[in-house]
Amino acid sequence: MLDSAKQESLEWRRKYEETWNKKKAVKDQVEVETVPGAHEEEARLAGAHGQAQDYFSKNAFAYFADALFKNLYNTFLKFKNRGQGNKVKIAKLEVAEQKITTLNLHLKGVQEKMDKYELESSALKLQLKDLNDKYESVQTAVHALEMAAQILVQDRIQMEQKYPTELKRFE
Tens digits of per-residue pLDDT, 23-54? Predict the structure, then answer.
């Protein structure tokens, strides 16, 4: 937007300078054509013509300045309105940043809890492994004792069959 305003300003300046140069060229030509001893009326007319051109040049410049001012003022208002929009956007960004900060703090709290639970889980896994090892060792001992008990039962059965009379005596 600013570039277009600058281009328009340059265009108006070019038009003003072109008009001014034409006026100057006509004025210079009138001065050259007006020689000493020329009719007084022609000189007066040339002077009036120059004054008229000065007036129109000044009005063209005033028109140019007025148009440029209006254009720049409108551009300023647009930027000012954008500034108002930017203030709203900035406020929204600040609220979003606050929410992000709150979420980050919450996330850190959750992460700390997860780390704590992970440590507890690791400790529980170690305890479970230890208990599993103890269970396997107890299972091995139970199996060994069951085997020994079976052997003893078989020995007893064999002895009962081999020594039935002595068994009756102990009963």
Answer: 777 766 655 554 454 455 555 555 555 555 55
What secondary structure letter does DSSP report for 37?
T
Q: Encoding tokens for residue 50?
A: 């120059």
Q: How many domains does the chain have?
A: 1
- The model carries a pTM of 0.37
What are the backbone angles phi and psi of residue 35, rounded to the nearest 5°? -100, 160
Full residue range of the structural domain in which residue 6 is found: 2-148
User: Per the structure block, which two tokens stand in for 124?
Assistant: 């529980």
Q: Is the dihedral of CA 103, 105, 108, 114 positive or negative?
A: negative
> Has residue 165 been placed in a domain?
no
Distance from C-alpha of 53 to C-alpha of 24, rounded to nearest angstrom: 9
Tokens 């309105």 map to which residue? 81
